[in-house]
Specification:
The complex is a heterodimer of chains A (632) and B (177). Chain A has 632 residues and is of the alpha+beta class. Chain A is 62% helix and 12% strand. The longest helix of chain B has 24 residues. Classes of the chains: A alpha+beta (632), B alpha/beta (177).
Chain lengths: 632, 177
């Protein structure tokens, strides 16, 4: 019964979203958009709750529940399994788009009703197409009748983890948030809004979407670190790239919109980036869910779904670019700015980020192209390509960011800051090296370059303000620019984390039996024993490991879990987390008797990567809220 | 000039879409094996599990059966792995593995970690049998009927849907007979 209710709610919202989508274009008069948006949101929310309910009561007659849950799955994971696979996550995605739309209708204060009606119309059309896709190819409420499975196949064990259950909602919320800048840019082109107005409408939502994308990606990286057992934090997996590309484009868009709003410039950049960022988010969905790329994240492989998604992608992206090419009523204008202006800094930022995004996208789909033109030979474009590509861009972007906050609009008159910046950078650089030397008792030359970029960024984002003559003006300044400062500081912290973890990490694979020990990185590591235990839906082998140093020690547990319903095996790493260094143990394979292989790793500064991501998230969130308040 | 520049993004994305479309519709079915409706070719290759044991055509004797071409370097094979495990557990057909251009050590490790859906795996490091079968890449699956005749071939990951559409009919025939 309840699944049918959910199904009917979805169909009702499908009809309503079609009406909402076409209304503004056909009727061209005042529509009660607020009411429609709210009802649409409530309908989809109702359907989502119906699906959650089906999971909680173990309704295995619903195919999606049967495939992704199990009678013995802990209740919390039954709840989270709702978005654990293709159908449910799609529904969550649609729900997120509805939340964004309601948010826009309530908070946007643009006075032109036609403008906001078109934003509403475009968004409703996107929601309509996703609902259509869900209902016809991926209905989460499909029943398996008449024979109902008794137990259910279980949720993918790697997803049975707290970080992983919250990572997708944040990510989807970020992805789907790029809907608003897209709809706003289309509406701006059709309604001929002034650039200042549409850019100021778009900025808070772009910042907010970027904030959620950042935290979603960050949580995914953290999860991969402790769950996959390899100790890595980024794998250049196609699906990670599918999230990274829209992130890069949304960052470019944030900066471009700023210039459009303040200086009436970069209008084409802002319009196109709005379309590109949304296109990248749709393309990511397509790549992940059509089955043409396979990865650890792969969803159900189904060419028909792929075709449908490609249809959605083509319609909106070609439609958007078509409006840009033929129906664009916005006049771009030339005004002058010099090479030492903030505008030029943002231009460099845009160019670099767009080329980087395109290169990553290319690397992601290149294996497909290669396969198609070499009759099926497969290659994989792995980390080496991406690292090779990203390195020069990261350096250049870092150099630009370091000075950009000092530059003025139009033209920068005084360059006194260069000396100061250089001086500060070198001070930070040597202090950081000193810290690393104290911590690790050696200095690794390959890390110097990145540490210098970190120092340059720190000098550029924080120390810049120390020139204020009194504490109160300094506090006032920080308060006024807190969002900008936090997110740029986040970039610096992240860069330091990446630089240090890639040069100051050590690993060793070895075999240990109970009672055996070894010396690793000046620590005595001993396997105390292996014990068996039972979880609610898995059996586990736990390796108890004692790590002792001359200053004390700690115990770690690394687990090998075998999930009963699926027989799948996962590894839980044992991690002693530290601000400066993680100690990481993961259990490998059982060799003979009670001997197991282990991988020991130390990961320096790895926490700084996620700390950086968190600061970027907070910074862009605060900026977004401030802008929304200012508009209100 | 500006007009052309305005249309440029549209054209670029149009091309991207055409390329993606061609990937998507590039059906592997066009690769009809010359061996369909013929008997499994003769071969003699070592077993994956035991290097000293040689496997021959006559060892593929629990029919009907699937011969599944797999390798540890093949990501799509991991995708179809749970489905093969399911086939094994339901004992609908016997699944024989053809471990293709792989390292023995890695292959055995994978089977140990992820479960072994295969009755046994033929270790075809040089791709000898694979060439005789006209294998295109991994994963690939051949259906062998009760008489030892190859009836169907599927290139790409074996999923529930492919199973129903391409292989289901052979088993239904069996049930009818």
């Amino acid at each position: 019964m309840i699944p049918e209710v959910g199904h009917i709610l979805l169909i009702t919202s499908l009809v309503l979203s079609l009406f909402g989508g076409l209304g503004p274009f056909i009727l061209k008069k005042d529509l009660p958009t607020k009411k429609i948006a709210l009802v649409m949101f409530l309908l989809v929310l109702g359907a989502f709750i119906a699906l959650i309910y089906s999971f909680l009561i173990d309704d295995f007659s619903v195919a999606y529940v049967a495939q992704n849950s199990n009678i013995n799955l802990p209740t919390y994971y039954k709840f989270a399994a709702t978005w654990g696979a293709h159908e449910g996550s799609l529904l969550l995605w649609i729900l997120s788009m509805n939340i964004w739309l309601v948010g826009f209708i309530i908070f946007d204060k643009n006075k032109n009703k036609y403008f906001s009606d078109i934003v509403f119309g475009v968004s409703s059309l996107v929601i309509f197409s996703f609902l259509l896709f869900t209902i016809f190819t991926s209905n989460p409420f499909d029943r398996i009748l008449p024979i109902t499975p008794l137990n259910g196949a279980d949720l993918n064990p790697s997803l049975q983890d707290i970080a992983f259950t919250v990572h997708p909602p944040f990510l989807y919320f970020g992805y789907s948030g790029l809907l608003l800048p897209f709809a706003i840019s289309i509406s701006a082109m059709l309604s001929g809004q002034s650039n200042q107005e549409w850019a100021s409408s778009s900025r808070p939502w772009t910042l907010m979407a970027c904030s959620f994308l950042t935290v979603g990606i960050g949580l995914g990286s953290w999860w991969a670190y402790y769950e996959l057992g390899w100790g890595g934090w980024w794998f250049w997996d196609p699906v990670e790239n599918a999230a990274f590309v829209p992130w890069l484009l949304s960052v470019a868009l944030i900066h471009s919109l700023l210039v459009t709003e303040k200086r009436n410039l970069f209008i084409n950049w802002s319009l196109l980036l709005s379309i590109f960022a949304f296109a990248a988010s749709l393309l990511g969905t397509f790549l992940v869910r059509s089955g043409i790329l396979t990865s650890v994240h792969a969803f159900a492989l189904d060419p028909e779904r792929g075709l449908f998604l490609l249809g959605i992608f083509s319609f909106f992206v070609l439609g958007g670019l078509g409006v840009y090419a033929f129906k664009n009523t916005i006049k771009s204008q030339n005004s002058f700015y010099s090479l030492n202006s903030k505008e030029f800094g943002v231009l460099l930022n845009n160019v670099l980020l767009v080329i980087l995004a395109a290169s990553i996208l290319f690397g992601t789909i290149y294996p497909l192209i290669y396969e198609a033109y070499t009759n099926g030979k497969q290659i994989s474009v792995g980390a080496p390509y991406f690292e090779f590509i990203i390195f020069p861009f990261a350096i250049l972007l870092g150099l630009v960011q370091g000075v950009a906050l000092y530059l003025s609009w139009g033209t920068t008159k005084s360059f006194n800051f260069i000396t100061k910046l250089t001086l500060e950078s070198f001070s930070v650089f040597f202090l950081t090296l000193l810290l690393l030397f104290i911590l690790f008792e050696n200095l690794i030359a390959t890390s110097f370059f990145i540490i210098f970029i970190f120092s340059w960024l720190i000098a550029g984002s924080i120390l810049v303000n120390l020139r204020f003559n009194s504490l109160s003006t300094y506090v006032e300044f920080i308060n006024r620019r807190i969002g900008v400062l936090l997110s740029h500081l986040g970039v610096a912290i992240l860069v330091l984390g990446v630089g240090v973890v890639s040069s100051y990490s050590y690993e060793r694979e070895l075999i240990l039996g109970p009672g055996e020990g070894i010396k690793f990185q000046e620590k005595e590591v001993e396997l105390l024993g292996i014990s068996n235990s039972m979880g609610s839906n898995y059996i586990s082998k736990k390796a108890n490991i004692r790590v002792s140093t001359n200053k004390g020690g700690f115990d770690l547990i690394s687990e090998k879990r075998t999930y009963i319903p699926s027989g799948q095996v996962t590894t839980e790493a044992g991690i002693e987390a530290g601000i400066f260094r993680d100690f990481y143990v993961s259990i490998g394979d059982n060799l003979e008797g009670d001997s197991w292989s282990f991988k020991l790793q130390t990961k320096a500064f790895i926490r700084w990567i996620w700390l950086g991501a968190l600061l970027i998230t907070l910074g862009s969130f605060i900026s977004s809220i401030k802008l929304l308040r200012k508009q209100a | 000039m500006t007009k052309i520049l305005n249309i440029l993004p549209l054209v670029a994305f149009g091309v991207l879409i055409v390329v993606l479309y061609s990937f998507l519709t590039q059906e592997n079915d066009q690769l009809e094996s010359v061996l369909v409706d013929q008997s499994v070719p003769e071969f003699e290759l070592p077993s994956l599990e035991d290097p000293n044991k040689l496997i021959q055509k006559s060892d593929i004797n629990q029919l009907p059966a699937l011969i599944n071409v797999w390798a540890t370097w093949c990501i799509a094979c991991r995708v179809e792995h749970p489905f093969l495990m399911k086939l094994k557990n339901q004992s609908t057909v016997t699944v024989y593995g053809l471990n293709y251009k792989d390292s023995r050590e890695k292959a055995l490790k994978l089977l140990e970690n992820e479960g072994n859906p295969f009755e046994f795996s033929i270790f075809d490091q040089s791709g000898k049998l694979a060439i005789d079968l006209g294998v295109y890449g991994a994963p690939e699956t051949f259906f062998i009927d009760e008489k030892g005749i190859i009836r169907e071939r599927h290139v790409g990951a074996l999923t529930e849907k492919v199973w129903k559409e391409k292989f289901g009919k052979y088993l239904k025939d069996k049930a009818d007979a």
